């Protein structure tokens, strides 16, 4: 009976953390779509780059991508325990595959659209995606590299905590401006490995199961305190201090996780959880959706009301990819997003 009870508790804890992780991914992907839509409107001169707009942009970018790397690290210890070949094949299917498919697709679309886009890319540069990520797809490329490194060192019996120490030391080389060569991916790995390592440490510790047990009052304190701390860091331009960048990001990550647990606990805003479960699909296709809407409204109807553009662009950027995924699952295009 004791063994059965313990197993039940473990299963329940696993279910709980998967649920709030989906909420956390939903929060993160909303910030990604909103942030890219905001920048698209500024670059197309629909929206003025005022002090408020710049501050909002800096607030979002202070932690939203570190959040995704951290969430990606939560369960990597378990997946890295598989044979290295199985691990690599699985990541090729769910990370590398959509990277190549959507990098090619979006590059072709931007080349066809030409001057209507904010960042036209010549097709002659398409082959470079093998070593030089384009647009928002840098995240998938960098994530794949960091995960591969983690899996390799895991086979050498390097613990998550040691990997975190190594990631911190690697990040410190950025502080002293150590040059890593011409491959830009290495600089992204140096900047973000620390967050995946942090997620791995949390995911392999008791803290993972304890998070969902935090009192509501504690969650609210972390939510408000964390997001306000990021706001203060932006206001006082602390993001310019490279040594403080991870600390600020961790405040944002903690606040996002607390908000995710809060939403999960009260079973509210289930649509945020839905965003999280479709975070990959939204990530790879949202720019095409929101940019297409912006171009259509601006050049066909001459519509340039910035707030309406921002709202519509964010909504379409989230739900058009979800709709596209569901259509693809019912057709011969079921492998548009993953090779599984």
Automatic annotation (TrEMBL):
One of its GO terms (molecular function) is O-acetyltransferase activity. GO terms for biological process: enterobacterial common antigen biosynthetic process. One of its GO terms (cellular component) is plasma membrane. Keywords: Acyltransferase, Cell membrane, Membrane, Transferase, Transmembrane, Transmembrane helix. It holds the Pfam family Acyl_transf_3. Its main location: membrane. InterPro entries: Acyl_transf_3_dom. Signal peptide: none annotated. The chain crosses the membrane at residues 20-38, 58-76, 97-116, 136-153, 162-180, 192-208, 220-241, 247-266, 278-301, 307-328. It comes from the Bacteria. It is a multi-pass membrane protein. Residues 19-326 form the Acyltransferase domain. It is found in: Cell membrane. Belongs to the acyltransferase 3 family. This is Putative acyltransferase, putative. It comes from Coleofasciculus chthonoplastes PCC 7420.
């Amino acid at each position: 009976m004791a063994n059965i009870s313990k197993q039940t508790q473990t299963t329940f804890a696993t279910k709980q953390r998967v649920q709030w992780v989906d909420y956390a991914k939903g929060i993160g992907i909303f910030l990604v779509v909103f942030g890219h839509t905001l920048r698209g409107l500024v670059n197309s001169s629909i929206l003025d780059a005022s002090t408020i707009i710049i501050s909002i942009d800096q607030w979002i970018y202070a932690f939203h991508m570190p959040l995704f790397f951290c969430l990606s690290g939560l369960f990597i210890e378990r997946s890295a325990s598989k044979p290295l070949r199985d691990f690599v094949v699985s990541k090729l299917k769910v990370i590398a595959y959509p990277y190549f498919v959507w990098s090619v697709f979006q590059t072709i679309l931007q080349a066809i659209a030409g001057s209507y886009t904010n960042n036209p890319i010549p097709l002659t540069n398409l082959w470079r995606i093998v070593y030089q990520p384009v647009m928002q797809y840098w995240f998938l490329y960098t994530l794949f590299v960091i995960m591969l490194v983690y899996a390799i060192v895991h086979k050498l019996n390097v613990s998550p905590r040691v990997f975190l120490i190594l990631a911190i030391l690697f990040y410190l080389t950025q502080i002293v401006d150590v040059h890593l060569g011409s491959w830009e991916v290495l600089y992204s790995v140096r900047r973000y490995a620390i967050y995946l390592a942090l997620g791995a440490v949390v995911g392999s510790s008791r803290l993972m199961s304890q998070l969902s047990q935090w009192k509501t009052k504690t969650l609210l304190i972390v939510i408000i305190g964390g997001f306000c701390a990021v706001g203060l860091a932006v206001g006082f331009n602390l993001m310019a201090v490279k040594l403080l960048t991870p600390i600020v990001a961790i405040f944002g990550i903690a606040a996002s996780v607390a908000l995710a647990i809060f939403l999960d606990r009260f079973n509210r805003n289930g649509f945020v959880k839905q965003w999280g479960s479709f975070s990959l699909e939204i990530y790879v296709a949202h720019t095409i959706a929101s940019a297409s809407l912006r171009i259509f409204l601006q050049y066909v109807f001459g519509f340039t009301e910035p707030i309406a553009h921002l709202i519509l662009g964010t909504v379409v950027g989230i739900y058009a990819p979800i709709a596209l995924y569901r259509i693809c699952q019912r057709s011969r295009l079921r492998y548009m997003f993953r090779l599984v």
